[in-house]
Amino acid sequence: MNKLVQTISEHFPNLIYCGIVDKRDTKTYDLIQQSFNSTIKVDNWLNWIKSSKKSISYSRIHVGNNIQLFVRKIDENRHLFIINEEENTTQLISFLMELKIDSSDVVISSAPNISKKSEDPKLLEAVRIQNMIIPKEEDIKQHFKNFFVVHQQQDVVGGDFYWYYRKDDRIYLALVDCTGHSLEGAMTSMIANTILNQMKDQMGQLSPKELLIKFYEQINDYNEKSVDESGNYGVGAEVGLFEFDYDKQLISFSSTGIPAFIKYNDRIELLKSKKIIEFDNLDELLINETIEMKDVLGIYSFTDGVTDQFDSEDRKKLGRRGIQRIIEEEGTFDSSYYLDKFNTWRGDNMQYDDMTFMALAI
Fold it and tell me: Mind listing the pLDDT tens digit for each residue in 175-212?
């Protein structure tokens, strides 16, 4: 093991893979692929890097579940490959970006110091800025019998957030799950929040479904400017948008990948939604549900970080059925009950994604 790989492995001991890959050596690519189980496929990404005519200076790629592939250039033929699942992403990115490498013998000429994320002033400032876009629960609660949010980012900042706006007799609530985690997700959340704010004038004139079509048109505009052949990819977000019309006593809901349970006196119903991959035919893909407010006791909406969280033995995801059981067993309508249930389910297992669970009583 050379000094470069040894130093990185000492700082980040839980990496799936850390090594130097020569584009001319196909055996190394085979070994990397073999380090994954059959459900995770990185061969497409490996082939893309291997066949690329340009030397990739730095790239970060989501290859499945919570697994990421980092590539850092050493010279025209060699790259540092890191495959990560458990290590702190923010610290790893910072380390790789600041790393100075002498390509002649592949040793570290200067390795950055890693400080605890809670002591990093840049991260603390990022937390402060992202918190500015999160509405106060008290402001939302005044429009309902009760309201709470369980909001747990995987890192100090992340891609989940919720959004609120009042216009005349209408209340708008959105739950948003942006692409990526940590700083990447947080940056995307600022874009999504900006787009929602820019649409305020159209609220009351357009339905939630029509508003989401406008939202994704804006996202698509961002992506067309940013995606290129060097491996950069665009931003994305899953959005669940509620409109509460107190004049007509109606609740309208449209969504792309954010589900919601509706609680009635005698039953609980799930409002499903499809994840949007392509931006064509949005009118056909987006759901648009309208229900009478008087029939509803409560609404529960959540990001996939909640449903995809594995249990304490890392064997089973909570899933929508698990969430429904928790709702059915609900004794008191408060965040502490749900936080306790989610933490008990996870146990000592790692948190795989940003998690947001939003609930309101009518």
Answer: 999 987 778 888 899 999 999 999 999 999 999 999 99
In degrees to the nearest 10, what's the CA dihedral of 344, 347, 352, 355?
Answer: 20
Ramachandran quadrant class, 174 (left: phi over 0; alpha: psi -120 to 50; beta: rest): beta
User: Which residues have C-beta within 8 Å of that of residue 34, sequence separation ≥ 6?
Assistant: none
CA distance 119 to 156: 11
Domain identity same for 82 and 207: no
Q: Are residues 226 and 148 in the same domain?
A: yes
In terms of domains, do 214 and 140 share one? yes
Range of the domain at 162: 122-361
DSSP 3-state of 350: coil
Nearest to 180 by CA among 310, 292, 75, 93: 93
Distance of alpha carbon 145 from alpha carbon 362, whole angstroms? 5
Q: d(Cα 33, Cα 26) in Å, to the nearest integer?
A: 11
Question: CB-side exposure of 297: number of CA atoms within 13 Å?
Answer: 11
The answer on 189 and 282 residing in a single domain is: yes
Cα 80 from Cα 55, distance rounded (Å): 12
pLDDT of residue 36: 55
In this structure, what DSSP letter does residue 310 have? B
Binning pLDDT at 50, 70 and 90, where does residue 297 land?
very high
Domain finish residue from 66, 92, 114: 114
What is the domain count for the chain?
Answer: 2
Contact yes or no for 355/319 (Cβ under 8 A): no
- Which residue has tokens 């005044």? 142
